[in-house]
Structures
1.
Amino acid sequence: MTELEHFRAEKDEFFLLHSQSPLTLEQKRGFQGLHYFPENPTLRLKVTVEEFPQKEKIQMPTSTGGAQTYTRFGKFRFTVDGQEAELTIYAGQQGYFLPFADALAGSETYGAGRYLEPEPIGRGKFLVDFNYAYNPYCAYNDRWACPLPPRENRLKVPIRAGERLFHE
């Protein structure tokens, strides 16, 4: 079992058994695991982040009409299937945060977007592994307040990695 397969199996177990699972009791009854794209090594990226000189604080709207505060940290550029793309990384209270929506949002991936926590690896570089992209809890249950990806993180390219739409 690969590291990613192990991670996914543990996540399925958490969703099914843990008291903090976003799934309702009704959803857990028929739960057979989350849906994922196959592992895509080309979307495991080590990127150089262009740090913003001024760390602007923004209010990111949430799925329930509220807002959460994040700091615009920096941006990075990358290529997906020959197409250029750019995303902004944010800093929050618990580390780095990368909310994004791709060209598949609403059809193959959650319409409001997915999340990642990029890992700093030194010298202005981050590991951004889209294979670990996940749906926010509001994708499963609308009682959760989830930050919505800002316009600057809405991609025109498909990211065929990570978690897919949740089907009950």
Note: The CA atoms of residues 133 and 162 lie 5 Å apart.
2.
Amino acid sequence: MTIRSRLRARAALLVLSTCAALPTLAADAVTDAMQEAYGPYRVALFKTNSNSQTEAQQAMTQAQQSWGKLAAQFGAKPPAPYDRDGAFGTSLAEVSRVYTKATEQVAANQLTAAHETLEAARDIMAQMRHRNQVIVYSDHMNAYHSEMEHVLIDGAKTLAQPNGMQQLTAQAGVLTYLSKKLSSEAPASYTGNAEFTGLVQAVDRSVADLQAALFAQNAVAVKEAMGKIKGPYSKLFLKFG
């Protein structure tokens, strides 16, 4: 992908993230149920990223049960706004298949593979909401996660390229913008929570540390700061994502 096309993709992401987040309860039954099922999903995603097969299996069971409850309740006849979504049933089944595959991988103690498999469920759920013009706080978390992954996966390679420090500085600018959205678009039930405030501030600090290292053009400090970005986000995601 060229630099120009990547900038266009990021611009589109920024437009999406400027939309106002809905409160934790979205005032439609399907989205509310999806958000309720998202809690066990986050735990499963977290546990498959650890070293405990037993805990991962337990988390997967909870996630499957929560999603199965949603599918049984709304699969045949979803209420508005999902009642106009011709792909609603297909998406429900896709998430179920993701869970089934991840469960099989956990049973084989392939936790890393299961974690990667589960990532797809997040995208499917986000696409379901997007098709139906529904935005929740998780979408802002997902936007930040997407850009964070670019930095974590490609950051070292970018840094080694000509003008790599400048390119990575631009990426960090996008990450800074999206991290601020994690505060500004949070529902009132989150902003009044001291634990949430502490966790989201930790995310902001991790990005600020990366920017400071980039502005100083200190490659060693940049690499160190990149290694400390994921931890604060993961803690925020597990509890509030």
Note: Residues 29-131 form a domain with the Four Helix Bundle (Hemerythrin (Met), subunit A) fold (CATH 1.20.120).
3.
Amino acid sequence: MLAKRIIPCLDIKNGRTVKGTNFVQLKDAGDPVELARIYSEQGADELVFLDITATSDKRKPLISLVEKIAREINIPFTVGGGISRTEDVKDLLRAGADKVSINSAAVQRPELIGELAAKFGKQCIVLAIDANLLDGRWKVFTHGGREESRYELFEWAKEGEKLGAGEILFTAMTRDGTKDGFEPEANKRLAQMLRIPVIASGGAGKMEHFSDVFAKSGVDAALAASVFHYGEIKIKDLKLKLKQDGISVRI
């Protein structure tokens, strides 16, 4: 059995790590370079860095910040936000990123997924999906959760896999920042229907939430932010807890 992955997420705005609830009410959570170094030392399996205003501001990701973070860590590192061209990916990989996360640009032009996978390898391409539960349907949103798209979660995830995405990062907007636990049913359905890895995001509040999403939903990785940023959960302690619960993790 492949080890489950624990992935801290650094949402970046104006060069600082921020965290909110349901994608709004953002609060400062610290220096991203320092946090990245700490998580790497604590035993995180990977990091995700999302420049959350790059798309809405119509600019590229912060390459200089990516370079600084890459110098401080020795674990895989995914960067997202403002990526819409092969040149953007080339710049990020050159700056030290191992993977890129695409969201809004892929919804607007789905063939981008295949173009990037063909040029850089599907293992480099993470399709991030932000979805909100509206009238019983999981609708996909773009631009940092601000704009509703034409897609529904499961059809878009399946199409993304077919086009060449190497992983799906699903954030349940209804759970984001609530600390009520990961969304169980949607994550389970994604994990069962897809052949590529699924990363669950949104709702982590205590260690049991990680155990539950791995055991009950079958996802490959769990991503969280505020519980790590504010020291509520230490990654080493979490991994020990998961191991005690019979979940395979790298310690």
Note: The first helix runs from residue 32 to 42.
4.
Amino acid sequence: MYSEVYLTVRYYETDQMGIVHHSNYIRYFECARNHMMAEGGYPIEKCEEDGIETPVVKVECQYKHPAKMGDILKCVAIIDKVPLAKLTVKQAVYNQDGVLCAEGLVTLGFLDKSTHRPVACPEKLVGLIEGSLNEK
């Protein structure tokens, strides 16, 4: 699965130098993941309605180039393998010139909403991922 969403850097996301604060890249990653789920036909809200929570269990982020106030960012999410108990999403953020600003990996777990016990990846999501991988 692949998805991208475009966001404009807002003033409150920057520090005194007009550079995006490092914590905001994790938010940009989340915007791209949520967009990918919605675009794929299984938005995160539907997953939760189906009784599955998707907590972030690990985040890795490498900062490559500073984004600045007013930049238009392309936020990318990629899933390139079918998950079992955890889902790893490759993430990247590029500025309007195509320069890589940050890249990383986000690992999500799956929990039963009522028991908070680990469960397998929802079949609906597995099917979407398998379908997108078979299209390649």
Note: The longest helix spans residues 24-40.
